[in-house]
């Protein structure tokens, strides 16, 4: 059966059904549109996210399979547990979003071209101002040494990127986020696409159809009003 790459209109915020995504490249659903907050929220609510490089048109994806991290399955190995007991880091929530996304766009460990191009950075900063995009920050002696950011809709959290400039800092950010989300009875983090780091921390792949069911339920979950207010995060269970 012939597959078609859908082209989006800047006047219409709708997306085609995710089961119409291409098999090659896997998960590519549509091209075009814009990065307005309304369109991005509409996309994530359906399991779709933007991902493209500098100079490319806006590309929208819904991969199959989909990577998720069930929060109860987060893996903390022996050496990391030992590190956490003596960790010199402080962890905060939503206190330095702009700095986190800037670090993520130019993370020193990343060899490939970044997808966090200026238009993407601006879009997610606007989403942060609206209380939809959030960051976790890891500090050492008042210096930002690690962090992550993502999108939250109801009880659904989709991780976008992370960075570190000091030992285990991105892992500490992920662990702190896991502890925080579990207090809200949130069951998983959407990791979008599997990679070795996420897999080592416990992420796994599920069918897109199964992910859609989890997504629908998660978005409808109620969370506390103060869930995403700026605060210090604890690493304890």
Report on this model:
By secondary structure, the chain is of the alpha+beta class. It has 2 domains: 6-64, Alpha-Beta Plaits; 67-233, 3-Layer(aba) Sandwich (Aminopeptidase). It is built from 7 helices and 12 strands. It has helices spanning 37-44, 78-85, 97-105, 118-129, 169-182, 196-200, 208-219; strands at 6-8, 28-32, 49-50, 59-61, 66-70, 90-93, 133-140, 143-153, 156-164, 188-192, 204-206, 231-233. The strands form 2 sheets. An 8-stranded mixed β-sheet has the order 11-5-10-9-8-7-6-12, sandwiched between helices. The protein has a 4-stranded mixed β-sheet with strand order 1-2-4-3. The mean pLDDT is 94.
Which secondary structure elements does this structure contain, and how are they paired or packed?
Layout: E1 6-8, E2 28-32, H1 37-44, E3 49-50, E4 59-61, E5 66-70, H2 78-85, E6 90-93, H3 97-105, H4 118-129, E7 133-140, E8 143-153, E9 156-164, H5 169-182, E10 188-192, H6 196-200, E11 204-206, H7 208-219, E12 231-233
Parallel strand pairs: 1-2, 9-10
Antiparallel strand pairs: 2-4, 3-4, 5-10, 5-11, 6-7, 6-12, 7-8, 8-9
């Amino acid at each position: 059966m012939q597959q078609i790459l859908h082209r989006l209109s800047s006047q219409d915020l709708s997306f085609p059904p995710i089961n119409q995504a291409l098999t090659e490249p896997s998960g590519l659903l549509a091209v075009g549109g814009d990065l307005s907050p309304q369109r991005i929220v509409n996309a994530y609510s359906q399991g779709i996210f933007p991902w493209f490089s500098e100079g490319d048109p806006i590309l929208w994806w819904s991969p199959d399979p989909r990577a998720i991290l069930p929060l109860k399955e987060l893996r903390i190995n022996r050496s990391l547990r030992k590190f956490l007991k003596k960790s010199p880091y402080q962890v905060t929530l939503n206190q330095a979003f702009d700095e986190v996304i800037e670090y993520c766009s130019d993370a020193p460990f990343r060899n490939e071209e970044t997808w966090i191009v200026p238009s993407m950075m601006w879009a997610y900063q606007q989403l942060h101002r609206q209380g939809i995009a959030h960051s976790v920050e890891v500090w050492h002696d008042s210096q930002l040494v690690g962090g992550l950011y993502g999108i939250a809709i109801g009880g659904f959290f989709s991780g976008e990127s992370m960075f570190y400039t000091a030992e285990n800092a991105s892992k500490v950010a992920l662990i702190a986020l896991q502890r925080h989300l579990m207090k809200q009875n949130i069951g998983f983090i959407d990791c979008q696409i599997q990679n070795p780091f996420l897999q080592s921390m416990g992420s796994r792949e599920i069918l897109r159809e199964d992910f859609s069911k989890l997504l629908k339920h998660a978005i409808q979950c109620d969370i506390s009003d103060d869930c995403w207010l700026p605060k210090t995060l604890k690493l304890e269970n």
